[in-house]
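Progress report, Aim 2. The chain analyzed during this reporting quarter is listed below.
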Amino acid sequence: MNRDFLYALGRPLSPLYSLLMGWRASLYRTGLLPSVRLQIPVISVGNLTMGGTGKTPLVQYIARMLQRQGRRPAIVSRGYGGTARGQCNLVSAGDSPLMPAMEAGDEPRLLAENLPGVPVLTGRARKFPARRAVELGADVLLLDDGFQHLALKRDINLVLFHADTLAGNSRVFPGGDLREPAAALSRADAFILTGTCDRNRERADRFAVLLAMRFPGRPIFRAGYEPVSILTYEDGIGTACAFEAMRAIPLFAFAGIARPETFTRTLHELNLDIVDYQFLPDHAAYRQPLLAEIFDQARQKGAAACITTEKDMVKVRGLNWSMPVHSLQMEARLGEDFQDFLITRLKSLPAAGGSYQ
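Predicted structure tokens for the chain:
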């Protein structure tokens, strides 16, 4: 069913939901609802809108940046889409993944694979995996999709907007794209406009001006996402392949992500031979019959192989393949001004023993 139609149906309830979310935030702000403070800094990466803003690639980028600074980051996520229901689910202690994607959730599993040395934990109430991360030796915590999770205090609040969609229709759910009223952005310490490129830069710049006027004093950064390589797999092991080597192969693309149009656009910009696409719901649960159906469609369209996202690959890699499947590896790119901001803020944070440095 058309999303705009559903939003139109839900619009009468938006003021009520907005009021409830504002009331909830005020209860945390006044201490009537408890919020846990850790003994290490917490960086929250989140968004105001529904759908994908590129949080996971940005969390990965920040974790690697912190590692280069000599820090010991850990990542805590809700584990959306995973079946694990423990108070604290250890996806990785920093050496290798301990849970399959079906249990951990696709994004925590992907982070665990891509970030050696970084513990990844999940839990609905994030205070429990956060405390376990401290026990594992973390000296800074990254809270993935944490803007609305007010039960855990954070020291740096990063809010993301995708440059293609920005604030959507600017209405609160269920009448629009916003998870809570725009006034909640007063909790933010900085904004990041993700997916910024030449195509949407002018619109993103206008939105940045509005943010600066409404929430002065908060820096606004731009983040781009760039394709790094295409991974080919043999016996479950991925090997990077040059884009040029893939251009002669007819490919069938499939993905279960929030913004599949960004995936298809990137494939076309790489001049790959894409014969057709199949899009699935975000965090789609892959089973053997579904994958067999995808392969059948690919062969009917004349494809010699399939290509998908890294997030989807962590779920299909354990299934049986009747044709090759490749994955597109993407990475976030930010300027040095963002690194300077984050490192400076971390060094300035007070703690019981003096500072978080």
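Confidence is low (pLDDT under 50) at residues 352-357. The chain has twelve helices and 15 strands. These observations will guide the mutagenesis work planned for the next reporting period.
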